[in-house]
Amino acid sequence: MKTLRICAIGLLLGGIPACGFGDVTDGFAPFITITSPVEAEVANVVSFSANVIDETGVAKVTFLVDGAVLADDLEEPYTTSWDTTLLEDGVHLLQVKAEDLSGNKSSVSKGVTVKNTKN
Ligand SMILES: [Ca+2]
Asked: What pTM was estimated for this model as a whole?
């Protein structure tokens, strides 16, 4: 299969190809669904998991909490554990980033409320 790369940005910036968009034969970034936690309110240690699908293959999945990397996962199932007791109670942002074999990237995020104190 003939693969072409989009290097227009690099050419515009001075002639050094920066092929950041991946193969034009792979125009689809991974599709991510956060499968856990499903609850709006979490406590203690919970599993943080995602379904990631891509037509050419998933290279890497990264789990983040409030913008900080929690874990990378290179193979299915894409999952890690998240110790919510390390954080203050309140709303925190979970994010999953994925990259396919051609360098196409995507991400999804959701907010969850951490509540470890009893009252
Ligand atoms: Ca792809």
From this structure: 0.78
